[in-house]
Structures are given as C-alpha cells and as structure tokens.
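Entry 14. Structure prediction run on the chain below.
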Amino acid sequence: MARVEKELLARWPESRLEPSLTRISALVDLLGSPHRAMPVIQVAGTNGKTTTARMIDELLRGFGLRVGRFTSPHLESMRERIVLDGEPVSAERFVETYADIAPYVQMVDAGGEHPMSFFEVMVGMAYALFADAPVDVAVVEVGMGGTWDATNVADARVAVVTPVAMDHAEYLGPDVATIAGEKAGIIKADAIAVLAHQQPGALDALIRRAVEMDVVVAREGTEFGVLERRVAVGGQQVRLQGLGGEYEEVYLPLFGAHQAQNAATALAAVEAFLGAGAATGPIEQETVRAAFAAVRSPGRLERVRTSPTVLVDAAHNPAGMTATVEAIRESFDFTRLVGVVGAVRGKDVAGMLAALEELCAELVVTQNSSERALPADELGALAVDVFGADRVSVQPVLGEAVSEAIELAEAGRDDALGGSGVLVTGSVITAGEARALLSGRRP
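Output returned:
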C-alpha cells in the first residue's frame, strides 16, 4: 500500500490540471469500458457534494442495492475515496486494483502529451473496481467542475448539482454563472437533473443545459425540499418533501440547515433513480428514516473531543464557512469558541475569516502539510486585518496550534459550565490532519 501511494502521489496532483477527457477516455477504453458496467448517480456542485453522496449511498443500500461510492478529497487515507458496501476498500483490494490497471495507465502515459494525473488514475481505479465487484449502482462525486472532470467519462442516469458558489475561480470562471455552466456538463441526454437551491445566475446556467439536453428537472423549493426542521440531540429532526410525497419525523445526526438541504437533495436523487414520483407516491418511509439516521459525515462539524468540545470542519470557502458558522450558532451553546484555521493558497481566505470573526473569541492560525498550504505567517497577517492583533496567535505546527487553542478555551471563565469549545477548520486537509491527531492516529 505504501508503494502504491508513493507511485500515485508522484503523479500530477489534483491542484495541477490540464482540462481534458482524452486520457481517462483512453484508459477506460483499454479497460473495457468499466464505467458503463453500472448506472451512475453523479454529484457536482461547490459545497455539500461528499455528504450528499454519502446520503445517497446510505439510502440506496437501505433499499438492498450494492453501491460503489467515489468521493474526493480524502481526510486521512486514499482508500476513503473508493467505498464498497459502505466501507473503504481494503488495502489489499486497493493494491490489487492498482496492479490490474497499472500497465494500461503506462500505455496511456506513453501515448499522450501529458501523463495521467493522480485523480485520473483514482477515477480509473474506482470504475474498474466497481465493475469487477460488481455493484448495482455507482455514486460518483465530481472532483472539480463537471464538463472535463475525469468522472464525467460516464453518462449519469441521475445528475445532481449541490449549491454552486465561488471556488476554484482560476479554473472554473470568474462568477457563479460561469462556474455553474462548467458543472452543468454532467447533465446529459436521458438523465434526470436534481438541482439543489441555487443562486439565480447559477440556476439559469443549469436550466439552460437541462433544456438543451431535453431532460427532466427536479428543483429544490419546487419539486422537493425541506418543509420543517428542528434541533435535536446530536443533530436535527426534519420533514422532507420528496418527489413522491412527504417524509415525516426523519432524524438526521448532522448539524445545520445545509445538511437538511443535502438530505432533501439526496432523497430526491434516490427517488429519481428508483422511479418514484407524484404518480407512485413516497418510497418506503421506514427505510428512508433508518438510512438517514445511520448517515455519518466525518470532518463535517464532527465532534472529536469533549471537555472542551473540539469540532473539526472541512469548510474551505466563504459559502461553506458561513454555513458552518450558522450551524454552530444553532446547534451549540458555546459562550466562548476558539478557532484554529489552516488554509491553502488560491482560496478566499479573507472571506472565510470574515465569516468566523463574530463567532470566535480568539484565533490560532496554523498550516497543514499540503504543498499548497498558506504559510502560517501569511495567514496570520490576513487574520490580524480581520480579528485584530490582540485576538490572533500564530503557531505553524498544527498539533501545537490545536493544543494552544484547547488551553485558551479551558482558560475561559465559562469553562466550568461547559461553554467553551474549539473549531478546527479552513481546509479538508486541516480537518483530516487534526482529526487524526486528536484520535491518536498519525496524520
């Protein structure tokens, strides 16, 4: 496994792109078109993709289907990206699959202008493994964009687009309408498009693509949505409008309005896949309830320690951070919260910090292990502009930054009442590494 990881990481990273489906198309052709061996539910969007994919997976397995799921990026292990029957594939199977496709990857490398990237090879591995399993359906999360993303070599039966916001502007475009146009590329002929709530410009671009492809469209707020929700212990209780009717008393062990919206989107996607609608009525309610109650989404406002409470969250853009802040305010009764932020270059870090400013009493800035990590000193200068020098400290080592934040939280006068906490956020990598550190694993 270590050897395979080293070989994969030697390839172009996910941050280096040469937009094209040529290489992945050549690979899957050599492999015998594994991407066509099963129907695909594809999930694009800016925020909420991974959690929505997890929910879709859980629901489909609740209905007795064998599911393969591909998501990215991972928190701690590459194996998290390729999930079979609800569990990351074993190290043995990961290595076997890589060995099976490696000769064909080398053929594509030799015949092209650029070698295959890390992400492209991972996509090829996922499709090959799912075809070999075999699975009844693959739930596939787009890496970036949609039109030229490697996952888009498949033609999705159900194309899901979660909320689109500004992110990866250097690759996808300068505004949400242009970005949505890229993501709309997963909507193809004969698909059903399931669209979460969108900003006006984004919705226009997605609908335009759906009209061009002449596909059925289900929109949050029209055909499906969240009818009611209330905070519950460990999450929330929701009432959802699906394509086939209402689903009442659904417990969701995740925090925030955005997670309820993800649940509504996932439910509509599964209904669309199973053929449910107004004419057929709801799918089995108890199965839906049991599936949602079992959903977990590591690194998404995940509590990894108590006394004081430490939350890790993978928010990495202003829209995601705003949703996190709103969820914390709604679901936690902190009287004092200390933030730990580690970010990567190319993100709207100032926008994320602005979203955190009213929530966090103090901020410890740090950096993760990524080659793209924003140095702690640079991040600290940005944080001082937002928080003021008296509320910011700089600690380049993530583990020491988390320890310092815990000490600051425990020093609060309200700690005896359980009102202090720590939030570690700013990047998926930061969340994953903090999660590993706090659980005693090596990141």
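The longest helix spans residues 91-111.
Filed with the rest of this week's runs.
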